[in-house]
Every structure is written in structure tokens, then in C-alpha cells.
Amino acid sequence: MKKQVFISMCVLTVFCFLLTSVALCLIFYGKYSADTRIELKNIADVFREETSQDTADVFLRSKRKDIRITLIAQDGTVTFDSIPPAANMENHADREEVISALASGVGESDRYSETRSEVTHYYAVSMADGSVFRVSKAVKTALGMFFEALPALLLLGAALLVAEYFLSKKLTKHLLEPINNVDMNASTVVPPYEELEPFAAKFAERRKKLRRELNEISSRKGTVEAILDNMSEGIILVGDGGVVLTVNKCAAAFFDVPFPTSGKNILELFRNADILEHLRSALAGNREEMNLQRDDRTYHALFSPVLSGGAIILFMDVTEAVKAETLRREFSANVSHELKTPLTTIYGHAEMLYNGMVKDEDKRSFYGHIKDETGRLIALIEDILMISRLDEGAGQELFEEVDLSEVIAVTVESITPKAQANGVTFRVSAENAFMRANRSQMYELLYNLIDNAIKYNKQGGTVSINAVGEGETLTLTVADSGIGIPKQAQERIFERFYRVDRSRSKKTGGTGLGLAIAKHIVLVHRGSIELSSEVGKGTTITFRFAKLQNHPNQQQSMQ
Fold first, then answer.
1. What is the pLDDT of residues 504-521, one digit of tens each?
2. Are the beta carbons of 411 and 433 closer than 8 angstroms?
């Protein structure tokens, strides 16, 4: 703006100077021409009553070289001229001023000379002897006067430009400094000049609108960033040419992407040829997807093109889903196997009985086998149905205040005959063992744990059951002095149908779902499981539950 103001002032100065110079030249020309005509008239009036010869003598004595006089006879013959010899001049009878002077006594005219850029003024009067006295004077035209004064004008113009340069700089600074000093961040902008008030009003209105838009954009940006950063999926936005635009925290954590990533090429983040090939296809407008492995995790990647150019890569951690699918397939295979074994036995015994291939004294034994396998089959189906219900979160609607010591007592009482048959004794302690739970599920949990502790115990061994409530947490521990669990099997004992020793499991019975059911019951009650076991010394399983609600008796005891 400062440059524009300075240039404008310079142009205005030059224009005004030229306009003034031309106007002065025109004024001076008009004034000089008028004065010349008056002077010529006065000279003619002075010599009007004189004779021709006397007039010529007086004028020659005056030595006026800028004034030219001519004496013309009535027939137009030039009898005297102050510049060229009269004898060589043509007849002047046809001259405008001569014709007018002979006719009316006075005549005047102007004639322009292109070669000399001059205008000659003529003034003629008739003399007493009948001749014509003409006086003339040549003056420069307005244009001629301008060009004659041009050197001086140029010099003056240069001086004015130099002066104008410094003055315009100072004036520009003086004009713009108040504008530059306006505090644009102030709540109210006060314009330094009243001419700027409309601009200030529009600026204030525009600033309010811009502030609202910026706040809205900032809010949207914050919302988008919050959504992206809190997503469990990884997202990478890639522009044309493979330039990375955005990487959320989840994607950065998945692939150890360094920050900042904006502006980098995707080749700097990934060297996987399959990823790059799918990305190129997405940038070309195709939708792609793939699975990839990284650090024992499985990711499903979706490559989607963006209409405005670029592509979005969405990484989803499907490790648990893959594991669940694997477990589902294993579960289906195990269920088929576990169901097939008793059914095959039942079918075989029934077929032999049907075909009369069994002696009468052996039939009771065959019926017993059928009865045992049928019971095992029913137990297996019931356990499978229970796991299915637990998977769906069943039983939470039946939560109530439960005194776990009562559930332990009922469970121990029901399983004592089996413990006595195996020579196993119980040690039970419960203190402040109140919690909100599904009573029947807690009974099932304890029964499965204690049953396993008996089956895999030593002759004359012990099973310790301890329930303690401390603060908002209840801890339940079931420990045995049995055979223990090998370290490599400890992570899998809660899987469905998993058995550490299958040969022993066949002898002790069971469906292989007891600990899987126990795990699901703990998950339904939002608890946690800890396992500690040593081969030959026994196993300890600890469950921790949030009590969720204190029992009234507990509150009284705490008081």
C-alpha cells in the first residue's frame, strides 16, 4: 500500500505540473497576443496622420527590430518595408488587412507560419495621402512557447520530483502510520480516519464471523482428532503420490510409526510389498483388503479410495477374533469327538443287545455301560449348554446378596462323599464373604473347582477353601495338595475340553469343561483369575471379585 500511495502521488505531481505548464503557456500566449495587438494599434495610430516618408524615417530611427512596418500604395504596390527591399515584394492589394484598411480605414489579420511555429499579427490603417500603413509583429505560438520553455520546465520538473520524492515519503508515512498502529487484536478497532469507519465496521463484522468459523473448525478438528486418537482401529490417510497426511495414535502404536508423520512418504513407514501394492491399487480407485501379521498380532487392513484423491488405510486388530474363530473350530471338533465317544459306546452295546449277541448273565453289565455313557453324555450336553448361556451373559439378572460361606458349606456337604472315597479332607475358612452374585453359578464354580481338586489330589491329601472380603474386594482361593499342573499347560487349562493327562481324565470322569465353565462364571461376575501350581506339590487357584454392595451385617461389624 505504501508503494502504491507513493507512486500515485508521484504520478499526480507530474500530471499537475504538466497541466499547469500547458495552462500557463496558453495564458501567457493569450496575454502576449492581446498585448501585441494593442501595441500594433498604438503604433499605427501614432503614425496615421503622418506622410509616408516621415513615417518611414521615424521608424528607422527607432531601431525596433521586432516591429515591421510596411507602406503600401493604393494599388497595392509596396513602397517601403523595414525588413526586405520593397522592390522585391509582391503586390499586397489582396491582403486581408490592406483590403479592410482601404475600405474602412482600419484592418487587421493573423497569419500562421508552420516553418517557424509563429503567428504574425498585422494591423493596417489608411494614411492621409491615401496609402496604407501596416505594422506587424511575429509571436511564438502556444506550442512554440511551450517547447521554447521546455528546458526550463524539465529542470523545474526534476527539482519538483526530487522535492516530491522526500515529501511524498514523509507524507505517506504520516498517512499510513496511524493505520499501521491500529491494534487489530483489540475488541473494538478505532479507525484513525473517519473515511475508514465503514471499513472498520466491515472488518469487525468479518472478524467476528471468522472467529466463529475458526472456533467451529477448531471444535470439529478437536472432535475428529479425539475420535481418531481414541479409536481402537488404526487409520492412515494417504494423499496423491503416497504422501502421508494423518496417522492416528492407534496406527502409530501398531507399527511403531515415528512422529511427526505429515509430509512423509508412505515408503518411509512401510516396507511391506503387499501393503504398498494394495495401496497403489486403492490410489487408482480400487477397494482392497488383506490380513497381515506383526508381533504375534493379526491385523485386517482395508484400503479405500477417497473421491477427492488419496486413500484411507484402516487397520483392525483381529487377533482375538482369529483366536476366537480358532477356538470355535477346536470347540466344534472337540464337541464332535466328545459326543461321538459315548454315542459309539451306547450304539455298540445296544446293537449287540439287539442282535442277541450278549449272554443273559452279561446283559446287566452292558446296561450299566449304556447307563454310564448316557449319564456322561447328558452331563456333557448340560455343560455345553451352560457355557453357551454364560457366553451370552446369562444369569446377571439373578444377581442377589450372597453369603459365600453358605454356598461353600452347601458345596462341601454335597461333594463330601466323593472326597471321602478319595481320602481327601477339607479346610474351610470364610470371613466377611458377602457379594452380589448369581447363587447357582457360584455353587457351580465352587463345585467344579473342588471336584477337580479332589480328582487330581493324592490319597490322603487336602483341599483348602478360603473366602475373605476386604474393603470392596472379595478373594476366593481353592488350593489342593495334588499332582500339580506342568508349567507349559497352565495357560491352557481353562480352555474347553483341554486335559493335561487324558488317560487320567478317562479314569476320573468329567467332561473337560469344568474349568472353562468356572472361567466364564468369573467373567460374568467381572472377576479375575490367578493360577499357581507346581508339579507334585499342588495347585492354588485364586479369584478376585468386586463386592459391588456390602451386606448389612458387614456394615454393622465395621461400625
1. 444 455 556 777 778 878
2. no
Query: Within 13 Å and on the Cβ side, how many CA atoms surround 40?
Result: 30
What is the Cα–Cα distance from 310 to 280, expressed in whole angstroms?
10
- Could you tell me the pLDDT band of residue 553, with boundaries at 50, 70 and 90? very low
Question: How many residues in the chain?
Answer: 559
Q: Which CATH architecture has domain 231-317?
A: 2-Layer Sandwich (3.30)
For residue 464, name the pLDDT band (cuts at 50, 70, 90): very high
Task: Tell the CATH topology of 2-148.
Answer: Beta-Lactamase (3.30.450)
Q: Quote the crossing angle between the two packed helices 2-46 and 150-180, to the nearest 10°.
A: 150
pTM of the predicted protein model: 0.42
Instruction: Give the residue extent of every domain in the chain.
Output: 2-148, 231-317, 322-389, 393-558
Among 452, 468, 420, residue whose Cα is nearest residue 533: 452
Q: Where are the alpha helices (DSSP H) in 230-359?
A: 249-255, 273-283, 319-354
Q: Is it true that 2-148 and 231-317 share their CATH fold?
A: yes
Q: How far apart are CA 41 and CA 108, in angstroms?
A: 9
CATH number of 322-389: 1.20.120.640, 1.10.3720.10, 1.10.287.130, 2.60.120.200?
A: 1.10.287.130
Asked if 111 and 104 count as a contact pair (C-beta separation under 8 A), the reply is no
- Helix or strand holding residue 97 (H, E): helix 96-104
DSSP 156-184: HHHHHHHHHHHHHHHHHHHHHHHHHTS-T
d(CA 444, CA 447): 5
In sequence order, what are the residues at sequence separation of 6 or more whose Cβ sits closer than 8 angstroms to the Cβ of residue 496? 327, 330, 331, 334, 387, 512, 513, 516
Backbone phi, psi, residue 471, to 5°: 65, -125
**Percentage of residues of the chain with pLDDT beyond 70:** 78
